[in-house]
Amino acid sequence: MQVNAQADSDDLFTSIAAKVVTTADLDRVPAAGSSPVHIRKSQLTVLRNACCHSHVGRYALCYRWLWRVQQFPELIGDVLDSDWCHIEQMAQAVSREIHKMHAFIRFRPTINEEGETVHIAWFEPDNHILRAACDFFERRFANMRWVILTPKGCVSWDLHQLKWAPGATAAQAPKADEGEALWLAYYQSTFNPARLKEQAMLREMPRRYWRNLPETRLISPMVSMARSRKHEMLEKLPHSGKRT
Length: 244
Description:
By secondary structure, this protein is α+β, with helices and mostly antiparallel strands. The protein contains nine helices and five strands; from the N terminus they run αααααββαβββααα. The chain has three domains: 7-97, no CATH class; 105-172, no CATH class; 178-236, no CATH class.
């Protein structure tokens, strides 16, 4: 759309390509005829992820960048634009959390009123990622009934379609069962202290996720055991004599 040359908007938008404007500034610009905004497919993906962020100004920020691109198409290739950099940062945070959700969901089997087995999981995301992440579970667990509970919303799969519901609490998630005990036994048996890399483990499995992962209750004692065994092995190594 064209921006009318009004006194209060002339100064504001003379150098819009080089400045960041607020939504209040945009409201001051009179609307005119619209024109399509052409962006790359990869940028559309970034915008979609950014809109899943928990930041209260996410929609305004994405709108502002699109509005600016509509007025100044050359901005589409400006990777250092401050608005775009902020959008990318939010999108990257959302993408990382979707990956963590795929990795750290733990389903527990329950029996519903119809006598059917339903697998239920509890997850606490920082961002609004449930809809963006659930396609993965629909594909991977298409042949089982499952429910994912989060404070921001819930989703269930009945073998045919996804159904959405308001948020839940951790108290509504099922408790540990016998199957979980078997999983913990397996996890402990496959732990290799010689390959332990604590910092790498914390990068891949941040502590904020530990409270909802049953296997994490074993990590501290296993790490302590690994340190002790490493110390014992080092003590048994032959000590070389002094050079003469």
